[in-house]
From TrEMBL:
Coiled-coil segments on the chain, per record: none
Family: Belongs to the CGR1 family.
GO cellular component: nucleolus
Transmembrane segments: none
Alphabetical keyword list: Coiled coil, Nucleus, Ribosome biogenesis, rRNA processing, Signal
Described purpose of this protein according to its UniProt entry: Involved in nucleolar integrity and required for processing of the pre-rRNA for the 60S ribosome subunit.
One Pfam family linked to the record: Cgr1
Cross-referenced InterPro entries: Cgr1-like (IPR005579)
Composition-biased stretches (Basic and acidic residues): 50-100
Protein's name according to its UniProt entry: rRNA-processing protein
Organism: Tilletiaria anomala (strain ATCC 24038 / CBS 436.72 / UBC 951)
Chief location category: nucleus
Length: 127
């Protein structure tokens, strides 16, 4: 019925896969619903490690995990930026307050100097 396979390991696998393929085709030509389901074996007759549905489900779960991780990372980065912005604004307000205090002190000194001059109290004349 079938010819003997040629010598060699690869040839044995190919011959076996060809034989299984022909057997699978004859079995799937019937209208039996069990044979119409996707097989859990590959063309060489070896059992598949994972089915396509399992792999797609696994990929979907990995994508969801990555998406969640990216969201958490973005939230953390936004919080860090917000804190840095608040700190920068606080330091800017502090510098402005210091500048205004120095300006007020300088203006106060000038005003005091003008009053002394009006009263006649200067360094040139000792009263």
């Amino acid at each position: 019925m079938y010819a003997l396979p040629p010598a060699g390991r690869l040839a044995d696998v190919l011959w076996l896969s060809l034989r299984l393929l022909t057997l699978h085709r004859t079995a799937s030509s019937t209208s039996d619903p069990a044979t119409l389901l996707p097989s859990t074996t590959n063309i060489a007759g070896l059992k598949r490690k994972t089915t396509w549905d399992q792999r797609t489900e696994q990929r979907r779960k990995q994508e969801l995990a990555k998406k969640k991780e990216r969201e958490m990372k973005a939230e953390k980065e936004a919080e860090k930026d917000r804190k840095a912005r608040i700190l920068k604004e606080r330091k800017e307000k502090e510098r402005e307050k210091e500048r205004l205090a120095q300006m007020a002190q300088k203006m106060s000194a000038k005003k005091l100097e003008r009053r002394k001059r009006r009263m006649g109290l200067t360094k040139k004349v000792a009263h």
